Amino acid sequence: MFKNLGISLFSFILITLSFTSCAIIAPEIEVSSYESTGSDAHLTDRLYYQTIFSGNELCLDKEYATNLWIKNAINNSHPSCLAAVNSLDGEIEGPLFSEEEEIEGNKIISDVPIVINDRVEYFIRFFQTRGRVFFERWLARSTKYLPMVKGILRENGLPEDLAYLALIESGFNTKAYSRAKASGMWQFMKWTGKRYGLRIDWWIDERRDPEKATWAAAAYLKNLYNEFDSWHLAAAGYNGGEGRIRRALKKHKTDDFWVIAKKRRALKRETRNYIPKYIAAMLIAKEPEEYGFRDIKYYEPLEYDKVKVQKATDLRVIARACECSVQEIKELNPELRRWFTPPNYPGYEVKIPKGKATIFLANISKIPKQELLRFLKHRVKRGEALYTIARKYGTKIEPIVYLNNIKNARFIREGRLIVIPLRARDRGRKRAERVTVSKDGTYLVRTGDTLWDISLRFGVRVKDLLEWNKIDKPDRLFPGQRLYVKEARLDTGEGRDDIG
Q: Is the pTM for the entire model greater than 0.90?
């Protein structure tokens, strides 16, 4: 008994001496990311002392000193803390940073405050272990969108580090969809997305547009910060809703996220963990190799041109005009839920591969307007329902209802003439079944044919048809003319490119 008491007393004395020599009484210290300039630009070469929190007392634990390079500076701390850090002579060469730099200088720039505590450390370990597989995918995908996201945040006067919120929201997945029906890279709920200008309907869901969604997220975060005057609270409001944060702060009479995060009933667990998870993910994403994430196959940054289409246009037509694949158009425009651009969105901007704008504009101008998106007229017969009509033509009820301004989808009058949207290639498929290619690889031009029709029908580029047949004037086609379509294939309908 006395032996145990002696050990306990000895431990207590050691702890007391430790806090006497290197501890200060201070509120929870925030560690902020920084940029260094001028003569003291080599702060990155000095060791970072891991901070360990115990109540309101801060102790610098030297056991971690050899493991981490300094990438953060202690911010908003009392001058005695600076003196305590700088007094650890023998461990680092020169002072860590000066009081003047910390308080008045411009060398340490605060972005989003970083707090190191047990919850942050827990999520760092989680991402390094159990969550490692998916976090590696997140890191790989992050480089595709980070330049664009940071640029938009910068244009809005917001901290660029807010870009890492998308890392924990969706792993930078534009098609992410949660059980709560939040969608896109920024996981907007439907009503919140609409409030910030995103269009969400049967045709299009702009929550999945990485650029437009980022502009909306920037506006939302700016409003949250203007209300709470804290990036931690703003981010928590983004996750859990500003109303819940507002009520929690009022109830517990505080303006500190970490205070309400300790109250289990104040916030949902997801929101309590949101800021620690965000800080952990940001720290790793900024220095992945320091945390053991090596050999990540990072994506190339996303680049594209934008062109306007005035009317609903089939994605296959857009792809052919760009001389690229339909899959490329789909990947660049994940917000499009159907196989054509929205019909009631004049001037809609379509994203196309970088450097293709000139080619697109040249090609699209040669296509007759009726070929951009084809429609079929259908007269309703007795006993027909919209469901059977839509099924007959391989489409869905919604576009028929919209395009024909049908008030009640369950009732449609016999004899009514309605229009049905068809894919641009449907005409080509039907005609391809009736045409033949001679043994020498030529096709006999028929009345009404255009080079565009023929290119779609045989799966070749207009450019190739012009080159193979030495055609100088694409509009000079006439019935009976033979065109060489070597290396062409009939469109048999294989590999349908469906959207939605």
A: no
